[in-house]
Amino acid sequence: MANSQLQTLRSVMIALAAVQLVTAASSTLVSLYFAETGASQSIAALASAMYSMGFLLGCFYAAGPISSIGYIRAFSAAAALSAASALLFSLTEFVPALLFVRMMTGVATAGLFAVGDSWINESSGNESRGRLLSIYAVAMGLMSVASQLVIMFVPEDLNKSFVLVSLLYCFAIVVIAAARTDPPEIKSKAAVRLRGLFKESPSAFTGSFVVGAIQTAILSIVPFRYAMIGLTATNISILIGALYLGRILFQFHLGKYSDKVDRRIVILGTASVATILLFGLSFLGSGDGAFMMEILDNFGYWPILLLSILLGGSLLTMYSLLVAHALDRTPPVFVSANAITMLFTYTVGCVAGPLFVSVLSEFWGDGALAWITFSLMAAFTCLLIYRIKTVAPAERAEKVSRVAVTQNSVELPPTEKREEHATAQATTDGIEDDQE
Predict the structure, then answer these.
(1) Domains of the chain
(2) What are phi and psi of 3, to 5 degrees?
(3) Residue of 392, 411, 428 whose CA lies nearest to 66
(4) Does pLDDT of 177 surpass 70?
(5) Using alpha carbons only, what angle is made at residue 29 by residues 52 and 71, rounded to the nearest 5 degrees?
(6) What's the rounded Cα separation, in Å, for the pair 322 and 328?
(7) Beta carbons within 10 angstroms of residue 230's beta carbon
(8) SS3 string of the chain?
(9) Is residue 400 within 8 Å of residue 327, measured between CB atoms?
C-alpha cells in the first residue's frame, strides 16, 4: 500500500477514534445531565431511543447525500451538526428540544461512521483489509473505554462538558479535512432482507434485536440510574468503562473458540452468563438502590466492577457472534445483504429497548429497567436452547471466517464463506432474492 494512502487512512482512523470517544462519552454525559436536571428515567430512556432512531435513519439514508457531496464535505457537515447539538445541551433544559437534538445527533453520527468505514473498506486492498479492520475494531474498543476515563476529568458543571464534546468534534473535522489524498467513491448501498434472514437463522435475527435493546438500555440508562441512587460521576464512569473493557478482554477469545465448535453453544454460554448477571443486577439496583449502596460501603467497588466486566464480556460480544452465526447459514450470494439486515434489526432493537423502558418506567418505576433487560435475555436464552435441541449445527464448510464486526454503520467488514462451500454454492441456480 502506498505511503500516501497509509497516511490518509491513519488520518481517517484518528478522526473516527475521536468520534467514537465523544460518542461513547456523550451517552453517559446525557444520562448524567438528565439526572442532574431532575428529569425522570422515562425521559432518559426516551432520549436514548431518539438517538437510536436517528442513527437508524442515518444508516440507511446517508449514502445518497454522501455520494452527492463527497466524503470530506459529508464528514465535516455531520461533525459540525454533532458539535452544534452538543452545544445546545449547554444552552437549554427544554426536554422536547433536547430529545430532537439527540435524534439529529444519531443521524449525524451514522453519517460520520458511514463515511469513515466506507473510506477504510474501499481504500484498503485485499492483502491489508483484514489487518486494518482488526486495528480499527481494537481502536474503537479502546476509545469506548477511554471515553469513560474522560468522564472522570470533565468539569462538575456538565454544561462545560458539552463544550468539550463539541471541541472533539471540531478536532475530527480538522483531521479529516487535512487528509493528504482524495477519498474513493462510495459503492455500497444498504439492502435489508428481513424474511430471508429470519427463515435462515431465526436465532441470529431475534438475538440481534434483543442484544440491541438490552445493550442500549444499559449503556444509556444505567448511568442515570446510578446517579439517582447517589453514585458520583467518577464511579459511574468506572463501572460503565468496565463494561467496554469486558468486550475487549473476551471478544477475540470467544470469536476464535466459536470458529471451532457449534457457534450457537458459545452464544448460549454468553447469553446464559448475561441472564444470570442481569438477574443479579435486578436485585442490586431495585428500589432506591440501598442494597447496592450497602454492598459498595461494605466491600468497595470490586464486586460490582467484576460483575460489570463479566456483563460486558458476555453482552457486548454477542452481536459479533450472532453476525457470524447468521452468515454461517447464509447462501454466499446473500452474505452482504444479511450482514446489513443484522445491523438493521440490531438498531431497531436499540430504538425499541429504551422505548419499552420509558413507557414501563411510568407504571413500574425505575426498577423496570433491570427486569425488562433480564426478561428479554432470558427469553432469548430459552429460544437458543430450543434451536440447539431441534436444529442441527452448521457444517464446518459452511462456517464463515472470524472477522471484526463493529456496530457503527452499514459499512460492515466483508465476510466470505470458506472456499469449498462458496465455490459449490456459486454454481447453484434459482436463488430468488426476497429483499424487503
Answers:
(1) 7-177+191-414 (1.20.1250.20)
(2) -60, -40
(3) 411
(4) yes
(5) 50
(6) 10
(7) 13
(8) CCHHHHHHHHHHHHHHHHHHHHHHHHHHHHHHHHHHCCCCHHHHHHHHHHHHHHHHHHHHHCHHHHHHHCHHHHHHHHHHHHHHHHHHHCCCCCHHHHHHHHHHHHHHHHHHHHHHHHHHHHHCCCCCHHHHHHHHHHHHHHHHHHHHHHHHHCCCCHHHHHHHHHHHHHHHHHHHHCCCCCCCCCCCCCCCCHHHHHHHCHHHHHHHHHHHHHHHHHHHHHHHHHHHCCCCHHHHHHHHHHHHHHHHHHHHHHHHHHCCCCHHHHHHHHHHHHHHHHHHHHHHCCCCCHHHHHHHHHHCCHHHHHHHHHHHHHHCCHHHHHHHHHHHCCCHHHHHHHHHHHHHHHHHHHHHHHHHHHHHHHHHCCCHHHHHHHHHHHHHHHHHHHHHHHCCCCCHHHCECCCCCCCCCCCCCCCCECHHHHHHHHCCCCCCCCCC
(9) yes
Which residues lie closer than 8 Å to 318 by C-beta, 6 or more apart? 207, 211, 267, 270, 271, 274
Q: What angle do CA 42, 32, 94 make, to 5 degrees?
A: 60
Query: pLDDT of 229-270, one tens digit each?
Result: 888 888 889 999 999 999 999 988 898 888 888 899 999 999
Separation CA 73–CA 65 (nearest Å): 10
Per-residue pLDDT band at 433 (split at 50, 70, 90): very low
User: Would you tell me how many other CB atoms lie within 10 Å of the CB of residue 122?
Assistant: 16
Backbone angles phi, psi at 400, to 5 degrees: -80, 160
Q: What is the pTM of this model?
A: 0.83
Tracing cell 455520494 back to the chain, one arrives at: 67
* CB-based contact 410:188 (threshold 8 Å): yes
Backbone angles phi, psi at 129, to 5 degrees: -60, -45
> Which residues pair with residue 417 across a beta bridge?
400
